Amino acid sequence: MSSKNRLKATKTQGKKLKSHAASNVSPEQQYPAFSLRYLDQKHGLEQCNQEQKAALIETIHKLSQLTWNHIYSSNRHASGCEKIAKMSIKVPIPKHIPKDANFIAFRFYGMAPMIGYRDETIFYILWLDIHFSVYSH
After folding, report:
1. Which residues pair with 83 in a beta bridge?
2. Distances from the Cα of 48 to the Cαs of 36, 41, 85, 92, in angstroms?
3. Contact 45, 134 (CB under 8 A)
């Protein structure tokens, strides 16, 4: 077969998306992204019922519509958050967590919090504290 009869390869790569992190906008003015990558098995989704799981998703969706500035300025029991001191955490802290990480709690089911830490715009959820046993309340 001659080279004239070959089909040309079609491009399969689309346009590249521009990263928000690469922009000049500060993380506080951006919207949070949520990660379950490091969710603890003993305080995770397996311990939640369907209603609690639905409340978690609704809370994540609601928070993802607000900037970090707005979240920090909100009442801690509404859309806001609460800082949790490391020394009040009662469960083992995973070794991969940065030493300078600040723990934050968001209420997701009544007063039950999800606890994690923030890295730039990403909030890593570590524990779902439905039994109020992860930290001293």
Report:
1. 104
2. 14, 11, 25, 20
3. no
Contact 32, 79 (CB under 8 A): no
Residue 19 CA to residue 74 CA, distance in Å, equals 27
Report the distance separating Cα 71 and Cα 38, nearest Å.
22
* Residue 97 near residue 104, CB atoms below 8 Å: no
Q: What pTM does this model have? A: 0.80
For tokens 């993380």, what's the residue? Answer: 27
Domain coordinates in residue numbering, the chain:
27-92+100-128
Residue with tokens 């083992």: 92
* Positions of the chain with pLDDT under 70: 1-23, 76-80
The candidate with the shortest Cα–Cα distance to 38, out of 112, 108, 118, is: 118
Closest CA to 108 of 74, 71, 136, 80: 80
